[in-house]
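Bug: token stream looks shifted between consecutive jobs. Job 1:
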Amino acid sequence: MENKAVEENKTSEEKPKFTRSIPISKLYRQKHKDLVVKDAWKDVFGIPELGGIWLIWGNEKNGKTWYSLKLAEHLSECYKVLYISAEQGLRKSFKDACLRAKLDPKNKKLVFDNYMELEELKDKLNRRRSADIIFIDNVSVYQDDLKYGGLRGLTNKFPHKLFILIAHEDEKGQPYTATAKMASKLSEVLMYVEGLKCKVYGRVPGGSLIIDEFKAKVYHGNDLKN
């Protein structure tokens, strides 16, 4: 009997918790904060919500970090942005990437950090005036932190913050690691980087952004605009 009670209790604890149902009228009254983007970025992103998950992925040496840094810089024009360089750290190679992306050294709204435990990140985001947008580079490093519901838990705890995850590409051209694949299903915006060009799609207008026109032309040739 005792074992049965323990088993029933365990089963009860593992049951998923669902949000209460709401009527259409309440759905329409919900307030959402629009994300401000400008210029060519607005052409592909439109007017998305400030919150949820975006995913950037691609093969190594194709411009993921370069593109991510330029996007972080653009978003920091209106928001506080935290870029976690979990894979490279803040070593010379990462500094060189920032120089290559020509980031403005006077920009105080874009800050960088090394890998930190998930609980430490949550503590940081709980503080007043914490970052509005968080880049996590790379999902592979955070695989253990974000699996088993960790990713959903993070975004549910901070619904008004945008998490932009960066992932490698597997042998099938898909985001690498189970967490990255889950992120791709949850993402409002998907960005695939190949040959210094980023293809943007998802619940947005979509399109292509060129990271470096000369190098992208060398890679893509006449297909640059496709």
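Job 2, same session, no restart:
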Amino acid sequence: MIDTRQFTTKSEAGEAAASLGAKAIVSAIETLGRANIVVATGASQFEMLAALVQHDEIDWSRVTAFHLDEYINMPDTHPASFRRYLRERFISKLPTLGAFHLIQGDAPDLDAELNRINGLLDQHPIDLTFAGIGENGHLAFNDPPADLTSTVAFMVVELEERCRKQQFGEGWFATLDDVPNRAISMTVQRIMSSGVVILTVLDERKAEALREVLEGPVSNLWPASILQQHPNCHLFLDVPAASKLTREPLTASS
């Protein structure tokens, strides 16, 4: 069961998600001497990341970070590049960060890049994953019908039309044709291996997917629904995102 909490504003949801994430990071460092985390990108993560980098109780020098996905053949200077997003909103804010292993989606040899990033993640069991849910129910860039069984760390995936329309609609690209058709994505099972998963899902455009993910059966047609089976998954959402749920989520005060 996914622990679900609803907040009035995006800022409140993001701050609450960051607060729980900070506690999980501190706990991992206290227990293991380090923390391995996965950081999400996209419009739903703006408020969460802005709050997370303010948590100075975290010894960031003991944190190793990865991200969920990156477009193939996209330079990190492009406005939609997730490497650029993370450098601007996360890495540059944390000068003592231990390491951030970025996916080189424009690497000349994709097989070599997959071997490199897979080897790195295999050496760093994930303590905490921050993530969102796509308008099509995707988890990372695992679009429906998603592979829910592969245990490799990262793989090349095809982006379906609803996913590409979401990226265009969020303003990352000038036209729909500019949105890439392929990406490197962390697999569903590797996300599921994380000790803690923290989801931030905002806006009415995510409401249908959220209902299917929370209230429907586990299905590769709504890939994030598999998180129903995660033992320590927490969801933070705003009122518009919750608008199509038939079961009342927990309130912020509960």
